Amino acid sequence: MAKCTPDTYNAIYKIAQAVAKNGGKLILSDLFRSRDMQWQSYQDYISGKKEAFSPPPGGSFHEAGRAFDLDLGALKMRLSEFWKIAAQFGVIPIIKEPKSTLDEAWHFDCRGSHQIVYQYYADKHGTNFKPYTAAAASAILSDGILVDAFGENQSEAALQSCLIRLGKNIGNLDGLIGRKTQKALEELGIEFEINAVSNMLIKAENLIQQKFPQEFQMPNG
To answer: Which of 69, 76, 96, 120 has the fewest CB neighbours in a 10 Å radius?
Structure first.
């Protein structure tokens, strides 16, 4: 069964309607990938079984249910036109120009608030990941899925992800709670409890839901 976040679901549904109005079909070939599925995809790339790049687990929006691959031919339109439709619903490509012959021309992300993490790293506020990897890790964490890079500090990293998306500068997204993280929590009115990370995470997640409600609301019916 395919899994995705509520806002990704809504975007796919609306994009499919728009594509249909133009005589095409939105046919997905890939959506959610488990950690094992992502590992296999990465191994296929490393071994040369597949040519298109696939990152190791912890670095793909597929693992967060926020990326999909599609059948370009079924769209029945220029890729540039599809980009315009997708952009209306917060869905973006990972290639820089709309050429269907390029690797990953079929891949699209619905990054939601995790685009903030991407920009945070692009602006060099964090340095331990490339922007895309940081944003993908943030998205995966927000789904409660393990990211190997953070070891035993999954909750701490998820908390930091929330803080960055709430506009705070806490340095690296690394799962290590320091003074910057403590200051950010206090600025948000969250009591710092070093031995109760889960409590702080719940409060931060509540603020995230208030700021980005569309990421949590499924459509009626």
So the answer is: 96
